[in-house]
Amino acid sequence: MRKAQAKKLPLAPDPRYNDKLVTRFVNNLMWEGKKSGAFTIFYDALGKVEKQTKEDGYEVWKKALANVTPGVEVRSRRIGGATFQIPTEVRQDRKVSLSIKWLIRYSRERNGRSMSDKLAAEIIAASKGEGAAFKKKEDTHRMAEANKAFSHFRV
After folding, report:
1. Whole-angstrom distance, CA of residue 118 vs CA of residue 116
2. Do the beta carbons of residue 63 and residue 134 sit within 8 Å?
3. Do residues 86 and 151 touch, judged by C-beta distance below 8 A?
4. Is residue 137 a contact partner of residue 102, using CB atoms and an 8 Å limit?
5. What are phi and psi of 149, to 5 degrees?
6. pTM reported for the whole predicted model
7. pLDDT score of 30
8. Total domains, the chain
9. Which segments within the chain are labelled E, that is strand?
10. Residue 118 sits in a domain of what CATH number?
């Protein structure tokens, strides 16, 4: 028998926007425990977004995150010796986690000088419905649509 599931620690809201989602994003962006560096990268990126789009960087970031958030995903399941990709709804906390991870992952893979440049470019692209992170969401939805026939295997 497993032990009780670990309690989720409450997140402290970030100092500038007083938003827990920003803290969650920065925690994923952080490398080697360098949280202040991650905050610097994030705030610089939002500043660059503001310069390029002439809109509020925070609002553009929220829009980008919403555009990248998936609704369904496929999960592998073995049934009678065959493996099926079964489309399932994504839980709310997992939706947010996936969108954050995709934005950061595809920002890191971009070409650019600094991480804040790359993150700003990916945020702008995602807010317009473009970019690699948005494409990942579209591909995930397309795969779920293609495997809709196996949805009756859902657990």
Report:
1. 5
2. no
3. yes
4. yes
5. -65, -25
6. 0.90
7. 94
8. 1
9. 72-79, 82-89
10. 1.10.455.10
Sign of CA dihedral 86, 89, 93, 97: positive
d(CA 50, CA 74): 36
Asked whether residue 74 is domain-assigned, the answer is no
- Could you tell me which residues come within 8 angstroms of residue 86 by beta carbon, excluding any fewer than 6 positions away? 74, 75, 76, 77, 147, 150, 151, 153, 154
Cα–Cα dist 144/132, whole Å:
18
* DSSP at 4: P
What is the C-alpha to C-alpha distance for residues 9 and 42, in angstroms, rounded to an integer? Answer: 22
Q: What is the pLDDT of residues 32-57, one digit of tens each?
A: 999 999 999 999 999 999 999 999 98
Q: Is 14 part of any domain?
A: no
pLDDT higher than 80, residue 116 = yes
